[in-house]
Structure formats: C-alpha cells, structure tokens
Amino acid sequence: xxSPALDALVAFLRIDGDLLAASATAxxxxxxxxxxxxxxWVAALPESEKTSIVLRVVSGAEPHLPRELLxxxxxxxxxxxxxxxxxxxxxxxxxEAAKARSEQRRSKEVEREAREKVRQERKTADARELHLxxxxxxxxxxxxxxxxxxxxxQPKAYDEAITLMRDLRxxxxxxxxxxxxxxxxxxxxxxxxxxxxxxxRLRRAGLTP
Length: 209
Fold this sequence. Notes:
mainly alpha
C-alpha cells in the first residue's frame, strides 16, 4: 500500500499514476506457484487477514497486490534454489506498460460511463411513463388548467401551460389520439392569436405545425 508520504511526493513531482503503477508491478521474476501449495497457504491465513485481502482486491486500488501476495507465499516456503531475482526493465518497457495500463483504465471508465448513461436514461424514461400515466387519469381537468394558466397573461403561467400542453400531447400520442391533441392545441392558438409571447413559446416547444 502506498503511504500518505509517498502519495504526497508523487503529487509534488507530478509523476504519472499509470507509470508508477506499472513500475510497481511485475518487478520480480517470480516462479508460477503450484495451485495446491498456494491454496494451502491461503487457507492457513488468519480470517481477519483474508477479509482484509478481499477488501483490498475489491477496491482495485492496489494493482501490485497479487504479486505482493505471491511473493509472501514464495518467501514462506523452504528455499529450493536461488532467490527470486529482480527483472530489470527498460524505460521504453515501463512507458509501454504505463500506456497499456492507461488505455485499459480509460476503456473501463468509458464502459462505466456508458452503463451509467443507459441507467439514467432508463430511469428518466420510467419516470416519464409514470408521470404520463398519472396525467392521463386527469386529462380533461388538465386541459382546463391550461386554459386557466393562459388566461392569467403572465409569462410564468405561459411556461407552465406549455409544459402541460406538451405532456397532454404525449398522453394523447400514447393512446393513438395524436390528431385530437393537435386539434385542441390549434384551437388554443386561434383563440389566443393576439398573444405573441404565448405563440412564440408554442413555436419553441414544437407545438406549432
């Protein structure tokens, strides 16, 4: 785990996070462990430590963790030969590893943002459907509310009337009565033809043919 002091130093020196993570991984040429031995070693760990390891893995904030655990496992076993040696890497190899890590991280971010966008769009669509379903139950009264709002001749009331008309148009469209809504809105335009502010709002809202 990176200490707060190292974090501060990295920020001060403006070291690329992906480059730092790349340099922290695969730094040792470790042998591939046998599955049975590794399983026995993990099983022998204290429960509290297992929980801690799982939490660290899930957080995804420690890309070096697998190699750290592998190193601990191999160090816990009797030495059968020469110790693991540091595998030197060139600057180019480190930069390439950092680039690959950065691209992988960006790809995951794009996927996460896309999933979140879909989730939000679905949530908005579901809320819209619920709103229109409730409005359909009081459609006649809402048309009357539109008339009342327009009669006030107040800009804010006009805006509320436009919102309601747009919702009522969609309610009618859901029921296959688009023509009915169009006729109702056309009649309102004719009745209030001398109200340019209202007519402009209707145009901007797409309620004018």
